[in-house]
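Please produce the structure of this protein holding adenosine-5'-triphosphate.
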Amino acid sequence: MENQLVLVIDFGGQYNQLIARRVRDLGVFCEVISSTTPIEEIRAKNPVGIIFTGGPNSAYLPESPKIDPAVYELGVPVLGICYGAQLMAHMFGGTVEAAPVGEFGKTTTYFDTSAPMFAGLPAENIVWMSHVDYISQVPQGFTITAHTDNCPVAAMQDESRKLYAVQFHLEVNHTQNGNDMLKNFLYQVCGCVGDWSMENYCEIAIEQLRQKIGDKKVLLALSGGVDSSVCAALLSKAVGRQLYCIFVDHGLMRYKEGDEIEEIFGNMDVNFRRVNAQDRYFAKLKGVTDPEQKRKIIGEEFIRVFEEEAKKVGKVDFLAQGTIYPDVVESGLGGQSAVIKSHHNVGGLPDHVDFEDIVEPLNLLFKDETRRLGTLLGLPDFLVWRQPFPGPGLGIRVMGEVTPEKVALLQKADFIYREELAKAGVDKGLSQYFAVLTNQRSVGVVGDFRTYDYTLALRAVTTDDFMTADFARIPYDVLEKISSRIIGEVQGIGRMVYDITTKPPATIEWE
Ligand SMILES: Nc1ncnc2c1ncn2[C@@H]1O[C@H](COP(=O)(O)OP(=O)(O)OP(=O)(O)O)[C@@H](O)[C@H]1O
Ligand SMILES: O=c1[nH]c(=O)c2[nH+]cn([C@@H]3O[C@H](COP(=O)(O)O)[C@@H](O)[C@H]3O)c2[nH]1
Ligand SMILES: NC(=O)CC[C@H](N)C(=O)O
Ligand SMILES: [Mg+2]
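Below is the modeled complex.
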C-alpha cells in the first residue's frame, strides 16, 4: 500500500489499539506491531513516525521489554507514551524510578506551549495518568515540556533528534486536547499528509483482490453479521460470480433472520447458498445441557456442513474470512489467557478441502472502519449497523437443552424486545441487547389459573470493546412495556427479569 504509515510499537499497554484508531481517525494509516519485531522489519515498513505504547512493566528492570536502540537511528520521529516515555528516558541515560506519589486518572498538567506537540493548546490541560514509576531526571539533550504537581516530567522532548515523550495517555478521551497533541505530532513533527481514507482503501483492496484471485474461485462462510457481510460485498465487487457464499442456517438465528439474509444476498450478484441444517443441529443438540459442549457441537457441525457444501462447489482455490484487525492483534500480540468460553464460528474450518490460500481483506480494519466500508459498498444500514451476533446463535441463549420449541419461544420474545427498544429509541445507545430463555420455571397466576412457565431474562449492555461491559440503564417504563407485551404475546413465558450484572464478573452472553 502506498499510504504513509505510522507504527505503534506495543509494550503491553491497554490502549495500544486505541492509539492506532486515533491515528487513523486523523487520516494517517497505522499498524500495531510487537516490541520484539526485528529492526530490519521496522525499517522495511518505511514508517513516517513511531509511537511506543504504555505497558505494565518498569523500564529500569532488566527483564522488562526493550527495543533495539537502532530504532532511534531510522531518522523517524518517535513518541513515547507512559512506559514508552520511561523506556526512552531510561535508554538515553535519564533516571526512571518508582514515584513517591503515583498518579491515576484525571490530573491537572502544565504545558510549555512553545513545544511543537503542544502548539496552539491551552497552557493547562487535564490529562489521564496511570503510572507508579516516573522520570525523575531527563536524559541529556532533553527538555521538560510539561509537569504536574507530583510529576516533574509529564512530557519531554529532544527536538534535534525528533524524540518526544508524554507520561500521560493522550489517546484516551479523558485527556483534554489529547487528539490535538497527537495531531501535532503527526502533522507538525512527522510531516503526515493525511492520505488514509476509506475510499482509497476500498479501491486498493479491490485491485489487490483481483490480482490475487485472478479467475479462480473463492468460498466465503457468510453469517449475515457485519464482518462477513462486508467481506462478501467487497469480494463481490472484486470478483463477481467467482465468489461463493455459504450461509449455514442452524435454526439458531433470530426471528426470521435466515429469510432476511437469503433475501439480501440472494439478490446480490454472487453465488449464494443457504443451507438449511436446522434438523441436524437439533438432533446433535438433543439432551445436551453443558454450555461448553453445546458450543463445541455447534462449531463442529459448522465445519461438517461447510465441508459438504465446499465439495459441491468443486475445486475452490481460496477461502475468504471476515477476520478484522482486533482479531489479528488479539491473537498475535496478546499473552496467554484462560479459556472462559470457546468462541466457535466456522473456527477450524475444513482440513481436507483443498484451498490454495486464505483471503482476509478486512484484516487491517477496525469494526467502525469495517462498517464505513460496508456503507461505501452500498450495504443497507440495518446490516452494517447490526449488533454482533455470536456464531452459536440462540444455542447459547437457551439455557440448558436446546429444543426447537424453546428456540421458537425465545425468537418471539427476543423480537418483541428488540422491536420495543427500537420504538422507544433506546436501541441506538446500546452495544448489544438480547433475551435469554432461562431453564427456570416459576409459578404465576393468569386469569385465576395457576401457571408454571419459563423465566425470560433481558440483557442489554454498553461497551466499547466487548471485553468489559456495563449493563444499560433502560428506563423502567420501556421495560414495563416490553414485559407486558412478552408475557401477553408469548405463551410459555411467565416471568421476566432484567440482568443487572457488569462484565466482569459476568460475561455478556449467559453461556
Ligand atoms: N451461520 C453461519 N453461516 C456461515 N458462516 C458463519 C455463520 N456464523 C458464523 N460464521 C462465520 O464465522 C465468522 C465469525 O463470526 P463473527 O460473529 O465473529 O463475525 P460476523 O458474524 O461476520 O460479524 P459480527 O461480529 O458482526 O457478528 C463469520 O465472519 C462467518 O465467516
Ligand atoms: O462470534 C462469536 N462466536 C462465539 O462463539 C461467541 N460467544 C460470544 N460472542 C460474542 O462475543 C462478545 C463477548 O461475549 P462474552 O462476554 O459472552 O464472552 C459478545 O458480543 C458475544 O455476543 C461470540 N461471538
Ligand atoms: N501505563 C503505563 O504505561 C505504566 C508504566 C509503568 N509500568 C508505570 O507504572 O509507571
Ligand atoms: Mg456474527
